[in-house]
Amino acid sequence: MTLIVVTGIALLAFGYLASIFLNKRAIDTVQTVMTSTLSATQSLILQEAYYGAYERSELLRTVANVIGVDMLRDTAKEFQQNGYPFAPTGAKSTNQQ
């Protein structure tokens, strides 16, 4: 990303220097190219930010799934060791408190 920003600034500087030495038509062409380059640079930066946020959200989703599975496993172990804290209708609970 730093390379993109530095390249964009270098192109702007080049356009400014070229505008000093060139005629009006060339200046308009250089300005058009520089504007397009800046737009493309902004688009690339926004895409990078978007995909970075997407990757972070996928990582968080994976961590949440791992935590959820871990909690389910612990709950199942607890039920196996101590019985179920509630019983279906008509059955006797194995956990008498």
Name the features.
mainly alpha, 97 residues, single chain, 2 helices
Supply the number of helical segments. 2
Tally of domains: 1
Binned, the helix content reads over 70%
What is the overall silhouette? rod-shaped
Structure class:
mainly alpha
Tell me what portion of residues adopts beta-strand conformation.
under 5%
**Radius of gyration from CA coordinates:** 31 Å
Segments where pLDDT lies below 50 for 5+ residues? none
Describe the protein's architecture and organization:
Keywords: Plasmid. This protein is mostly helical and 97 residues long. It has one domain (2-80). 81% of the residues lie in helices and 0% in strands. Helix 1 packs antiparallel against helix 2 (24-82). The model has no long low-confidence stretch (mean pLDDT 76).
In short:
Keywords: Plasmid. This protein is mainly α and about 100 residues long. About 80% of the residues lie in helices and about 0% in strands.
Helix-strand layout with pairing:
Elements: H1 2-21, H2 24-82
Helix pairs in contact: 1-2
Keywords: Plasmid
